[in-house]
Design goal:
The protein has four helices and no strands. It is mostly helical. The chain has one domain. It starts with a helix and ends in a 26-residue tail after the last helix.
Length: 101
């Protein structure tokens, strides 16, 4: 079930997000296979499973997240591709408070 939910999160981020957001999401999600590898090793499971399956999955996810983050930074000219709200000038678009009430 966790794998299905993780894939749904990725589809949602792909549909509505940016490559920068997807890169950070994938980087955070790479903790899951690292945790799985630690669990297998601590329970005296086969090292081939810990490193070959979970470790390889974590390595691929880290590589993909690095590529996504590099691509989003390169495309935006070194700036983050996340849009930040514009700062309103004082008195424009905001209600003015009169100091003499």
């Amino acid at each position: 079930m966790r794998d299905i939910a993780s894939r749904l999160f990725i589809v949602i981020v792909l549909a509505g997000g940016t490559t920068h957001l997807l890169g950070w999401f994938t980087l955070a999600a790479s903790a899951i296979p690292v945790g799985d590898a630690v669990i297998v090793l601590r329970s005296n499971g086969p090292k081939a499973v810990a490193y070959g399956i979970h470790g390889a999955t974590a390595a691929v996810m880290l590589a993909i997240s690095a590529l996504l983050l590099i691509a989003s930074t390169t495309r935006s000219g070194g700036r983050s591709s996340l849009k930040r709200p514009a700062i309103q000038q004082r008195g424009q678009g905001a209600a003015r408070c009169s100091p003499h009430l």
